[in-house]
Amino acid sequence: MRDSEILVSHHKALMELSHDADFIEQPRHQKLAALTELCARRLNVERVSVWSFPPKGDRINCEWLYDASAAPDNRSNSGVPPSLYQSEHPAYFATVGSERVVAVENAQEDPRTRSFTRSYLGIHNIHAMLDAPVFDGARMSGVICLESRQQRSWSPPDISLAVAVADTVSLMNTHEAWIRSKQALEYVTRFDSLTGLANMDSLKARLNHLIRKVDKRGRGGLALIWIDIDRLKVINDGLGPQAGDQVIAEIGRRLNDLQLTGKDFLARIGGDEFAVVIRNKILPELLDSAAELIQQRIRSPIRVDGQDLTISASLGISRYPGDCDDGEELLRSAEAAMYHGKYRGQGQSTQYDSEIQMTARSRFAVESELKLALENDGLDVFYQPIMDSTGTRIASAEALVRWNHPDRGWLSPIEFLDVARSAGLMFRLGECVMERVCRDWRACRANGINLATISVNLAPEQVMVTDLPALIRDVCGRYSMPVSALQFEVTEDALQGELRVLSKVLEDLVDSGAMLAIDDFGTGYSSLARLKSLPFSHIKIDRSFIKHLPSDDNDRAITLSTIGLARGLGLSVVAEGVETRAHERWLFENHCDYLQGFRYSRPLPLGQLTDRFYQPTHLVQSHQRH
């Protein structure tokens, strides 16, 4: 049979296998078993294995082995070393890295492979090898290895089939990476990153599903318990936002563990708000009992920074059918009941009834008020200084949005950003922040004050809009502010979008003169491969890793590794949440470039920032620090 006929036969067999419906539905290890067995049988070789390179590329690990001489139930990785190291086989690693396809007739004598003879080839009586590359995207991530116990010349059909099988594994890798990316994006969009609970979007979907079931069956019902944590702002102001995060995370855990009759669903729906869905068990007395159990669980002291905090919550309860006609009304009714009770005193549980009017301030009222504030330039920006490594001189400042609400006073982002996100207002909010930053920069320049670089946060909703760089250039141009005076901070979670669009937006910003920083590094889902391909110049270490320095071994290791990673990638490091002299000293000694936190200042209005940090002879002294 001619080579061309053999090649067609090989590829027909592979096509029939890889396009078979049963094969497509199999888990990865079964697919590898089928592919390696097909390759071994078609090419009459005794062993076919799949190997993978870890990201560092200093070794190669065996993922799967088909050995025709082994028992069928003992063919996976039988008699194969789990890893082969570059330091022991430099010639092979250099060859596979440059030539990709390695076809060896006498493997025990060939200079490319003879280093394997004593520990591997000789033991298994292997004389010929054929390796074909496996890819993960653009990165060579492994090889398919064919091993023959006879010396043989590898024909073009042999090499073609080996490469085709390797390409099939590469396609599997690409598909699995897409699935993982999709799952990560699904998690980001449907779940809360702090507590791991479902978010408002997930709650709405669940409520609509349950309501449809009730309507279809003509019986049953559900109730929604809206839980608002009282006085969380006081904790954030007094102990810092990380303390508030600890409280939220602990309450989320307690609510998740709480056994309630009829409990169906739990979500975190705002900065300090949760919701519990109860199915069928919705008599008023049963709901009162459930509310009391929730209150008891929340009131149990929470230990934060060595202090026992006693937390209370205001609860609002609504039912379907009875109090409302659809899922949106169920949410509004429960929230209105909660606010009705809160106005009478904190720590109360209130069931919605006809006497409770929808004039109670609610999430939906806040949404309307926020839209009005955005239309009328009603948001403000405070600035938190970022200091040099000694903590004595301001290097830049982070712009943080604030809202001076006409009735509730100053609101921090935790109190309205989730509302903005669920209402689709984040891009517009970002525009307003940019306008205010540029206006502040121009006002300072008019008064002879040259502000340092200003860091502006970009939300996930902004970084995936290709028009963002043009909008920023336009806003800066109107205020005669150079884009180079800006640094944009992007959280890891915001980097989960489609890489082509993300790269275009971020690279366009850098080409315009701006710098980029990865915010809250270590808390998100980004891969190092993705991070290194994007044009960042700074990494901001999340405050959760700084809090217990220098006493906590894990936090020291994480922070040191992040600093080392940044050095290797040519990035500068900013430590967030610096609050003590011990934090400052340890970070300075370990070559952290910039420091940010309450030790130096809380976020300040522009006038206070310039008064404290931009006086001609300004030098931050230890006794001035907070």
Explain how this protein is built.
44% of the residues lie in helices and 21% in strands. The protein has 626 residues and is α/β, with parallel strands linked by helices. The chain has an 8-stranded mixed beta barrel with strand order 14-15-17-18-19-20-21-22, surrounded by 4 helices. Strands 3-2-1-6-5-4 form a 6-stranded antiparallel β-sheet. The termini are far apart. The model is unreliable at 616-626 (pLDDT under 50).
C-alpha termini separation: 84 Å
Unreliably modeled segments: 616-626
Percent range for helical residues?
A: 40-55%
What is the gyration radius calculated from CA atoms? 30 Å
- Major β-sheet, in short? 8 strands, mixed, barrel
Number of strands: 22
Global mean pLDDT: 86
- Count of DSSP H/I helices: 22
Q: Strand order, main sheet: write it out.
A: 14-15-17-18-19-20-21-22
| Secondary structural class | alpha/beta
Query: What is the overall silhouette?
Result: globular
- Give the amount of beta strand, in percent: 15-25%
List the helices and strands and how they pair.
Layout (H helix, E strand, L loop, with lengths): L2 H16 L2 H5 L2 H16 L3 E6 L6 E9 L15 E3 L4 H10 L2 E3 L12 H8 L3 E9 L2 E10 L7 H35 L9 H18 L4 E8 L2 H8 L1 H17 L5 E8 L2 E7 L4 H16 L2 E3 L2 E3 L3 E8 L6 H18 L4 E3 L11 H13 L3 E10 L5 E12 L3 E3 L5 H6 L3 H21 L6 E6 L1 H4 L4 H11 L7 E6 L7 H13 L3 E7 L6 H5 L5 E4 L1 H4 L6 H17 L2 E4 L5 H9 L4 E2 L10 H8 L13
Parallel strand pairs: 12-13, 15-17, 17-18, 18-19, 19-20, 20-21, 21-22
Antiparallel strand pairs: 1-2, 1-6, 2-3, 4-5, 5-6, 7-9, 7-12, 8-9, 10-11, 14-15, 14-22, 15-16
Helix pairs in contact: 1-3, 1-6, 3-6, 8-9, 14-16
